[in-house]
Amino acid sequence: MRKKEQKRLLPVEYVIAAILVLVIVAGVWMAMRADAGKRKRVEGTYSCEYLVNGKKEQSVVVYYKFDADQGTYEEVWGERSLMTGSYTIEGDIVTLVSDGKEEIGAESETMTCYLEGDLLIPHNYIYEGTVPEEDVFDAQCTMTDSAGQEYVAEFSKDGGYTYTIRGMAGGDDSVLKGTYEREGNFLHRKNDDGAPLTDFYIYQGKLAGIFYTKE
C-alpha cells in the first residue's frame, strides 16, 4: 500500500517542480527585460566645457538635453539653442537625427554616440590609433573631421605630448605642446605654460577628443 501511495504522489511532485522552474524562468526573463529597458533609455543633460588656452572666462559649455519620454534632444552652446531633433538608442549606441531647423556648418545632421557610464562620446571625435594601457606611453592618434581637417595627437613616455592641426591648402600647421597625466581612462592635459586644457578620454583603447558628462 505504501508503494502505491508513493507512485500516486510522483506526478504531483513533477507538477510542482515544473511550476517552480517556470516561475524561476519567468523571473529571470522579467529581470532581463527590465535591465534592457534601462539600457534603452537616455535622459537628462550631458555637458562638456571647452577651455580656450586654459582661460575660464573664454570657455564655452555645450549641452545635450534629452527628453526620454518624447525621444527628442536639444543641442545648446552656452545659452544658444543650435539644434533639435529625435534620437534612438540600441544597446550602448545613441543615434541623434536633427530635424533640420538649424544649421551648424560642417556638422552632420546625423550623429552617433556611445554611452559609457555617465559619459556620452561622439563617434566622429574618436581618433585612429591605439592607446596603450600604461600611465605614460608612446602613441600617435589621428582624426579627420567632416571638413577634411586633420588633427594629430602624439604622446611620449616622458609625459609630454604634441597636438598638431594640419594646415589646409598649403597653410602652416598649428602646433601645441604640453604635458598629460592619466587618471583611469581620463587624460588631463596642460599647455607648456601650465594652463589646463579640456580632458581627453580613452574609450576601448581609442582616444576620444570630446565627451559629455551627465549632470
In words, what does this structure look like?
The chain has 215 residues and is of the alpha+beta class. Helices cover 18% and strands 48% of the residues. The strands form two sheets. An eight-stranded antiparallel β-barrel has the order 1-2-3-4-5-6-7-15. A seven-stranded antiparallel beta sheet has the order 8-9-10-11-12-13-14, with no helix packed on it. Strand 13 and strand 14 form a beta hairpin. The protein is globular. The protein starts with a helix and ends with a strand. The relative contact order is 0.13. Mean pLDDT is 82; it is low at 1-7 and 34-39.
Average per-residue pLDDT, rounded, comes to 82
User: What is the H/E string?
Assistant: HEEEEEEEEEEEEEEE
Helical content (DSSP H or I, runs of 4+): 10-25%
- Main-sheet strand order equals 1-2-3-4-5-6-7-15
Low-pLDDT parts are 1-7, 34-39
Q: What is the percentage of strand-forming residues?
A: over 45%
Query: Number of helix segments?
Result: 1
Radius of gyration: 26 Å
Oligomerization category of the chains in this entry? single chain
Beta-strand segment tally:
15
Biggest pleated-sheet summary: 8 strands, antiparallel, barrel
- What general form does the structure show? globular
* Distance between the amino and carboxyl termini: 72 Å
Structural class estimated from helices and strands: alpha+beta
